Sequence to fold (688 residues):
Amino acid sequence: MKIYLDAMGGDFAPKAPVEGALEALTNYSDLIIELAGPLAEVQPVVEEVFQGNEALKERLVLTDCPEVITNCESPVMAVRHKKQSAIVDGMLKLRDGQVDAFVSAGSTGAVLAGGMFRLGRIPGIDRPALAPLLPNGKDFFLLIDCGANVDCKPEYLHQFAQMGNAYMQTMRNIATPRIGLVNNGAEAEKGCTLTKETFQLLQADGKLNFVGNVEAREITHDVADVIVCDGFVGNVILKFMEGVVETLMDMIKGEIYADTRSKIGGLLAKPAFKRVKKKTDYTEVGGAPLLGVRGNVVKAHGSSNGHALACAIRQAIQMTEGELVRKIENQLVSAETETVSEQI
Amino acid sequence: MKIYLDAMGGDFAPKAPVEGALEALTNYSDLIIELAGPLAEVQPVVEEVFQGNEALKERLVLTDCPEVITNCESPVMAVRHKKQSAIVDGMLKLRDGQVDAFVSAGSTGAVLAGGMFRLGRIPGIDRPALAPLLPNGKDFFLLIDCGANVDCKPEYLHQFAQMGNAYMQTMRNIATPRIGLVNNGAEAEKGCTLTKETFQLLQADGKLNFVGNVEAREITHDVADVIVCDGFVGNVILKFMEGVVETLMDMIKGEIYADTRSKIGGLLAKPAFKRVKKKTDYTEVGGAPLLGVRGNVVKAHGSSNGHALACAIRQAIQMTEGELVRKIENQLVSAETETVSEQI
Fold:
């Protein structure tokens, strides 16, 4: 098993990726990591972080990619021109079977563009989608799409549902994942043009366990395993969740510090708050897979630390072992066969 | 000042509206409330709730509206056919100047349809919008639209911004409200087709203090006073906020009860949690005004209790006193004049 890791992706690169590589190599004895970036910058960090772990270092392949794609440039142009960047080099190696999966905490746009134009789409998928697992207090649900496609057609959302279904079956061992569609009302006739038409497609697909429309209030109430929406709405959901949790936790902290009795109470209740923090930390389950491309791609959160990157690598390993790409292909093929046989 | 109140609106009708009327009449000595619903049902509740408050009862006008519009019927059909309902009767009286404002905790769709078809739109407004005030930890921001219009054009969103601007100036005394556009990225070139085109319109409107795109993570971080989006996205934001706060509070409660030390801490910190609850309770500032119709209409939350309805009535009084409808008209006129003079 060989995972390609972008050494320059994320806010804490190259340190966080190098630390993530060390943790992952420690956990998986048959793992090889190809760590790519400008070696002049990456090598000293590797020497420092891997000090005393010479045996692990033997399974770390360093590749010099002197160009770095930043968040501040056009992703499509960057992917076209920066051929000596980790994102382009990694996607090409993934396409050619030289590595099994690709992990980056770098520019979301560049990972998307790299996946689309260098790696390529699975036949039958119009638009690859980003799909993080998010906590609902009890377990995790897959939010698809969370920002790859801001203008969507009903067929795209249908494909998101199919890919999400395959992901949850393969990665979370759920035999018939509940598929829900984000809508402004629970009833079938509710919604905007996009959701009304998507509802019909999802309901007609006999391979999916479609549980109907899901109002935003219910998203975190464990009513579906796969939550389908367009990338604009998904981006709002993902980021608003982060924002509201931050605001509420800040508010609670502020009020706890506002009087002595509450302050003592807050100190005593610290173990509870720590558990809440752990439960809401969705980097534990990895990053957001880019589903619909011809290979295993994980986009880790930009603010990932070493452990979050190790979790993303674990996720990439599981996607490879579970043969996720083939499962998605099968999902599409069987849906097509179904439609054809119904027509006959 | 005369406010029309739907006695059968909301989950706790008719008791909550009657209690809301009592509280409002107590607070405002020159207020008259027209309370409308099936009197056979409403009258006994009035007798019970107003017992010992005969003087206040003199300013309560009871109107018999034997028909009730429920959440389970088509709003447009209901407003067309149930002429003896409080929503239809109230909107017509508001249109004819017999009352100053209309308040209901009933069916959102019926209030919308009643506002559109019985009361009518302000000239220049294509689509009236629902706009609740929501907490951001520090103060409140106006979210417009939160569900009246799920399929929008850029001009609608521009009008939402203009109406939100007039509302925050009039009702919250903010001279130049910061107007933000919900988007999946902060940069001007980011977004879906709708937000990209809306961005141009908002930036070109010299009467607005447009602060640019607002990512969902920032919505509750006090970066704008008016948050503009289409009704589908606004509905997701409004309801997701409720859902996430519920889920997180449940999670915290669960973890606090999970060990003895935390449990004692939680008991001691109760005053802090109470303050947080009060700060996040947005019914204190009233309901969601329906902006863009030719009259003051407030849609209170379906789960409103008596106090929440009294707050919605206070809001309706303030909208009337502040001459909000005229302010919105002025905002539109001056924007048009501006455009014409620029062309000259």
User: Anything to note?
Assistant: The mean pLDDT of chain B is 93. The first helix of chain B runs from residue 15 to 27.
